[in-house]
Amino acid sequence: MARLHLTPGRERTVLRRHPWIFAGSVDRLEGRARPGDTVDVIAANGDVLARAAWSPESQIRARVWSFDGETAIDHAFFKRRVAESVARRATHPMLAGQDGQRLIHGESDGLPGVIADRYGPVLVLQLTSTGAEKWRDAIVAGLVQATGCSAVYERSDSDVRRLEGLEPRTGCAFGELPEGPLLISENGVRMEVDVVSGHKTGFYLDQRDNRKLTGELARGRRVLNCFCYTGGFSLQALAGGATSVLSIDSSGPALA
């Protein structure tokens, strides 16, 4: 395994558990590594600090998989990390009854460059780093095993992939998308999601709580929803008792 030596003094961020190693922190790479390969991260005094994915074209030269230098980075590692991420959401009380969920949120779940969202029986996967790209098959297998989903649709079409030297890729990584509209339930409201061409992975899941708040404030009021996208806030407002809602967006397909 290649060894990534850090410039003296630059090990402090790794010791504080920051998962990114920038180009300016790198002294040299000892040995050969292809994009996405696992490298040992070495302090100036020779200590092994972490194991990380090598990304020679990015300003983020390495993203840490584990701060334990003895951890094996293999298929079992990724299946375990994926299963742990899914299990955390399964027991979270705020996600009960919500079938639109973010299952993996990159570095927050110890999987840099990996985003996975659930929309009912379908998962949408986005890979944005060379390390995530290298272990794509293991990540997909882990998601299928942990969730029992019917399909995994890949939306690795973010511009950030080009900074890693990666081309965009979309399409089914497992199974097939169901025919007809894909519906999710959020706070008791049914919504349609376009995982193929919609924004982000198909929907703005991070706005769930704000949509709920809008519904709670809307009773008896007229609501104007500007930049409405597919109208998630509008639907919550109507469900909450708004007397009328006007939704405006520049995108015809979003309003269709």
Describe the structure.
With 256 residues, the protein is of the alpha+beta class. The chain folds into 3 domains: 3-66, PUA domain (Archaeosine Trna-guanine Transglycosylase, Chain: A, domain 4); 75-182, Transcription Regulator spoIIAA, CATH 3.30.750; 207-255, no CATH class. 25% of the residues lie in helices and 32% in strands. The protein is built from 8 helices and 15 strands. The strands form 4 sheets. Strands 2-6-5-4-1-3 form a 6-stranded mixed beta sheet. β14 (222-226), α7 and β15 form a beta-alpha-beta unit. α6 packs parallel to α7 (232-239). The longest helix has 16 residues, at 75-90. The radius of gyration is 21 Å and the shape is elongated.
Search tags:
8 helices, elongated, single chain, 3 domains, alpha+beta, 25% helix, 32% strand, 6-stranded mixed β-sheet, 5-stranded mixed β-sheet, Archaeosine Trna-guanine Transglycosylase, Chain: A, domain 4, Transcription Regulator spoIIAA, 256 residues
Record the SSE blueprint.
Elements: E1 3-6, H1 12-15, E2 20-22, E3 26-30, E4 38-42, E5 48-54, E6 60-66, H2 75-90, E7 100-105, E8 114-119, E9 122-127, H3 130-134, H4 136-147, E10 151-156, H5 160-163, E11 169-175, E12 182-186, E13 189-193, H6 208-217, E14 222-226, H7 232-239, E15 244-248, H8 252-255
Parallel strand pairs: 1-4, 9-10, 14-15
Antiparallel strand pairs: 1-3, 2-6, 4-5, 5-6, 7-8, 8-9, 10-11, 12-13
Helix pairs in contact: 2-4, 6-7
